Amino acid sequence: MKAVYIERTGGVDVLHYGDVPAPESGAGQAKVKVAASGVNFIDTYHRSGLYKLPLPAVLGSEGAGTVEAVSDGDSEFKPGDRVAWAMSRGSYAEYAAVPLKFLVKIPDGLEFRDAAAAMLQGMTAHYLTHSTFPLDKGQTALIHAAAGGTGRLIVQMAKILGARVIATAGSSDKAEVAREAGADKVIIYTEQDFVEETKRLTHGAGVDVVYDSVGQATFAKSLDCLRPRGMMVSFGNASGVVPPIEPLTLSQKGSLFLTRPSLAHYIATREELDWRARDVFRWIREKKLVLRVEHTYMLADAAQAHRDLEGRKTTGKLILLT
Ligand code: NDP
Hints:
By secondary structure, the chain is an alpha/beta fold.
């Protein structure tokens, strides 16, 4: 089968498109014919070596397609089922062997492309706003990179929950995307000082929570945007890894809370996975959550997708079609 794989870590030139043996469904797995694969920043970390993988490895952490075979005859999943998944690697390929514990059925009426676009970033937005720091009416969140795949969805979920959203974005076009997603205020953080602006917009009080996926470039200043006892949710490294921090800093800046969460730990049980996926799919159907699949590439062009994502050239979601 055709797949995008790496034999060593590095820049986009380590991505190979070529033939590899198709996976078989092992115990507790389904073999899925992949129709669409989501492109996520985590794929660039796997490629660069920031997140370690046994090599060689087929990339891709999210997909949608049709079940071809299931090793477990008692499973609720059967050949022909339309399914989607996140956090199982190997979706940049024509076929993937996916653990059944990661699969969900795609509701009727939802295309593969949109199902693939909704899983990883949708469930991430869900756990961040519902579990890591459950947002409520009257609270204010600062959401970085709000025009991005994950950022747009966090903004929309924060608004579903009734919170006030201050968003950041890297350009005026991206600011418009964040505004369309529902952000109450947008700071263009490449031009404006986001600490000063956040203080101004909260009359000096600070925000209840910062959802920071940018990492190195924004981490320290994000702490200065929080109210006393606010929560810093550092959930990504788009600009680089956050350096070590002294716990005393959290005390000095207002007895802050700091967490560095991962989706894997928030969909660890079938109940949590189903809850998050069900809510995401329902809100898409009800049009409370609007996906923007802005960039569609053929599988063979995965390297261009990585270049665009890392080059800050994209808004919304990137998808590879097989
Ligand atoms: P995005 O679509 O958000 O793209 C990344 C965005 O980050 C860019 O568009 C850019 O927006 C911003 N950015 C700021 N500085 C840089 C930089 N130096 N280089 C590149 N981008 C930069 O990607 P994803 O939605 O796929 O992922 C966003 C982040 O969320 C990643 O850090 C990812 O690891 C994290 N994530 C974490 C999860 C978890 O469970 N912990 C799960 C899912 C995602 P702008 O130009 O507006 O600044």
